[in-house]
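Give me structure tokens for this 303-residue protein.
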Amino acid sequence: MDAARQSILLVDDAPANLEALNAVLGADYELIFATSGQEALELARDQMPDLILLDVMMSGMDGCEACRRLKADSRTKDIPIIFVTAKDHEEDEAAGLDAGAIDYLTKPIRASIVKARVRNHLDLKRSHDLLESLSITDPLTGLSNRRHFDAVLETEARRAVRSMSPLGLLMCDLDRFKAYNDYYGHPAGDRCLQAVAAVFRETFRRAGELPARYGGEEFAVILPGATLPIASLLGERIRQAVEARRLPHARAESMPWVTLSVGAASMLVTAEAPASSLVQRADVALYSSKKTGRNRVTCAEEL
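Here you go.
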């Protein structure tokens, strides 16, 4: 799928109707086709389109039921849905809007109306996505911000409880960063944070891993499924990667470049041991790394 173009899922059990919509929209958007409500649910979860055009009258699962299921699913609830139907009674339109659709188009379709409605709703979706991205992103580094970190940690903690799997966490802090700012100035300090953030982004790419700017010169990484040995290994990997970047630091203690102290923790989250306990363990381990010489990884189990 062309990532530069917005995508639309077209759902209709009549191939002729899909062909008509394809003729109207195919030149401007990436189109995905489904011929049943169940197929629409599966494709929406898999492809995450920007917009869904959904026929109301289909055999099996009708459009209203498909719409309700899409809106009930946390993965697809924010995808806007336009109903396309031959019904044009007021009560039918109301039923569609009550199910969660944002608009209603009647057949036979009129190309100019379809294009205008689709364009308007996709513009709104793009604006919504931009605002959502800004709300969860640290503006300086481009990593997830503290707000997003906290939300994802709670989500991963609930998932870890259900699956009875460990949840790992790294807490990381740039060594002697106040001295760095005092010597080089805050604009240089901002550039340093951006460079370090790029190292975090390059290092943590696996599904589920979330690097975030925790605050100031402190970073954190959520590691779903990671045992303590794995968390420790990944902590050492990011420590080495930051050191290897050789960012000059004239006021560092042991070497003339920027280094990172890391605290690693992992645990089975329970009602008695919530995610906040994991943060506390990793934070205590980080404090130990700072107190025992910096530029090292300390595991919570070692304390």
